[in-house]
Please model this.
Amino acid sequence: MVQMAMDAWLWNEHQQGRQPPILRFYTWSPAAISLGYHQHDYPDHWNTLSWQGQPLQIVRRPTGGRAVLHQGDLTYMIVTSQNAGKRWQVYQGLCEFLIQGWRSLGVDLSYGAESGSYINSTNCFSSATGADLVTSQGDKLIGSAQKRKGKVLLQHGSMMVNSNPSLYSKVFGDLATPAVEIPINQVIEALKDAAKACFAIKLVTEPLSSSEWEKILSSLMECH
Model:
């Protein structure tokens, strides 16, 4: 829950001019299932699932799409503004660093095909849309979704790096995408280098201050 609250807070702060554009990477502990903003129904048995002795949290993303299992995956988040163009043009402009970064790791990605099949599924990774990235074998590696307010944009994405097949099957009843045998830290470094090249930017690591953490936790409490 804290991760989603942090992303929503950073997005709002950028709208107010109090935060610069942001690129963030993170993993989840404990494991969780995130629901898309408009996704209200999910299987009852999700409420009883656990992983490594802890219940699976069920949280809601600020962005759309279907449910994502956050265990062994890598999440990225972008907050930015002044993105001119049609929706898919903006998606592709922002996703270019993902394509370039994974290519440097020996994984070629391309965009999925538009399809309405995802509407009838609870699982984000059961199908790919034009906003998603798939491998040359047709496996969906990265699912992404956006939320906009005026010129300010929040884009989330999950990368299926090494999810546990047994847990994935318990959640969705499907087979997991084959694991990518690359350490997550190596993936993050490759994506950071690609982002600097694609966007012609300098990345500066800025940990949140104690007062900022208090505001994020306060916003989380207000939601409950």
Remarks:
- The helical segments are 2-15, 87-104, 165-172, 184-199, 210-222.
